């Protein structure tokens, strides 16, 4: 991220812009709670938290997007100071309104936006909250292992230039 900020400065840019000098980077941290409270020493967990918080806070301008997932986003596991930095929050079914509010932010459940009422037999349905907006009902597509393998192969082929998508010439 520091190197990207240097590049932005060298190009006279404040943030990443379409067609700019570098591509977006996606950082995915699955089960973020494991790194914050389970793995490593207390000092290592604190360092991970500080680095992740910095990446989430400043990374977007440098084209680094962070996706963090956890099954239990409670304040004792994922501090509010980290959760509040994410521009998008996706809450799947939660056991109660308080748990839904932990993800979406305090008060949404009392305004009728709670995931505790989502049918447990309808996986992938949740509420998506974009920065500055209101929660919207959202359903993710189910992808089998074969679907994921196909998408990875196609993405790698696109990235290496072995296949190209048609371009719009209009």
The value of Rg in angstroms is 19 Å
Low-confidence stretches: none
Number of alpha- plus pi-helical segments: 6
**Please, how many domains?**
2
Please tell me what the overall shape is. Answer: globular
Q: How much of the polypeptide forms β-strand, as a percent range?
A: 5-15%
Number of strands: 5
What summary fits the major beta sheet?
3 strands, antiparallel
Q: Going across the biggest sheet, name each strand in turn.
A: 3-4-5
Description:
The chain has 170 residues and is an alpha+beta fold. It has 2 domains: 1-86, no CATH class; 89-170, no CATH class. Helix content is 36%, strand content 15%. The strands form 2 sheets. A 3-stranded antiparallel beta sheet has the order 3-4-5, covered by helices on one side. A two-stranded parallel ribbon has the order 1-2. Strand 4 and strand 5 (136-139) form a beta hairpin.
Descriptive tags:
two-stranded parallel ribbon, 2 domains, about 35% helix, single chain, about 170 residues, alpha+beta, 3-stranded antiparallel sheet, 5 strands
């Amino acid at each position: 991220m520091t190197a990207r900020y240097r590049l932005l400065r060298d190009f006279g840019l404040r943030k990443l812009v379409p067609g700019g000098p570098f591509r977006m980077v996606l950082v995915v941290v699955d089960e973020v709670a494991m790194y914050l409270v389970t793995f490593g020493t207390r000092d290592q967990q604190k360092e991970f938290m500080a680095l992740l918080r910095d990446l989430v806070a400043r990374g977007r301008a440098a084209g680094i997007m962070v996706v963090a997932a956890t099954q239990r986003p409670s304040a004792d596991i994922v501090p509010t100071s980290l959760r509040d930095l994410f521009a998008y929050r996706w809450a799947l079914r939660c056991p109660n309104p308080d748990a839904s509010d932990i993800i979406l932010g305090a008060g949404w459940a009392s305004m009728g936006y709670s995931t505790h009422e989502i049918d447990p037999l309808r996986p992938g349905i949740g509420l998506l909250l974009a920065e500055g907006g209101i929660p919207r009902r959202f359903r993710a597509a189910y992808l089998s292992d074969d679907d994921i393998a196909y998408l990875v192969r196609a993405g790698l082929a696109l990235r290496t230039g072995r296949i190209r998508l048609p371009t719009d010439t209009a």
